[in-house]
């Protein structure tokens, strides 16, 4: 007998979850690099993969079942980053992601990129940014999907390196092309407070810059509190370990701080054994706003819709629960108010179209 609840989904649930307008807030563009494209780009760009690297894209995909924690995954993820060389590589990567999710009801997405993974290899930040942006602009014209681009600092790098990376990005931050700042990579032992001065400096470059940080994925709930108190972030990426502290939960609900939760990622990286162990129902009961996201979909076995469907398989949520999730995902987005109004209207139409399940 199955240890965890796993309900079959009805046609009604699948159509509803496909159509419901989705906003993604936690998506590393480098994490959309599918094994096949990784090998194609390695060959095109004459990149030698490590000797112990799987020999085929099928073997590489199979190896993704064996991550035992975040660091294990990051070691492979950074090897993948090395095959991205030209502006066109970043364009192709981003276009493939956006084309896929255009069929999954995605309406708005906020895309992370890791400048240091590329500037450390002497690529210019403009080359990386321009490749991503070109795909975003084309997809907006074709499908009406809106996007924002967020740069993340790698917390395993030195503070000086992070600060120098802000200098490289200064023109993109000042003119609002880079819309937000995030913090990713190995969470422990690099707590948020180490980056206080760097976040201050970024906000001084442009007071409109939006702020977020990964916290409470592997780190305990003090990482969430310190990201809020020391970095002044407006939302928290992951944040599932907030459930260990009722005071943090109360604060997230009262201050309407959204968590960008990544269910399939949490299973593959062994934060939980199974999606049913995530505190989804507890967040709903406590009125904690959260969105559902794919994190690094090429590595974690699914894009945004797969994450929505897996949550439904495990929790059997009601239409009202989904309205709460989708509304908060829209309200927690960093798009303009007109776009939010448009998406809320779209959500209302979808809610009216489907009967309860
Ligand atoms: N889930 C994750 N946590 C931290 N850093 C990341 N970089 C890419 N994916 C990440
Ligand atoms: Zn992430």
From TrEMBL:
InterPro entries given in the database record: A/AMP_deam_AS (IPR006650), A_deaminase_dom (IPR001365), ADE (IPR028892), Ado/ade_deaminase (IPR006330), Metal_Hydrolase (IPR032466)
A Pfam family per the record: A_deaminase
GO BP term (any one): nucleotide metabolic process
GO molecular function: adenine deaminase activity; zinc ion binding
Coiled coil: none
Site residues, Important for catalytic activity: 238
Main EC class the enzyme belongs to: hydrolase
Keyword Cytoplasm applies: yes
Cofactor section: Zn(2+)
Catalytic residue list: 217 (proton donor)
Domain Adenosine deaminase span(s) in chain numbering: 21-347
Cofactor annotation remark: Binds 1 zinc ion per subunit.
Enzyme Commission code(s) on record: 3.5.4.2
Binding, Zn(2+): 26, 28, 214, 295
Protein location: Cytoplasm; Nucleus
Catalytic activity: adenine + H2O + H(+) = hypoxanthine + NH4(+)
Family assignment from sequence similarity: Belongs to the metallo-dependent hydrolases superfamily. Adenosine and AMP deaminases family. Adenine deaminase type 2 subfamily.
Protein's job: Catalyzes the hydrolytic deamination of adenine to hypoxanthine. Plays an important role in the purine salvage pathway and in nitrogen catabolism.
The protein's name in its UniProt record: Adenine deaminase
Gene: AAH1
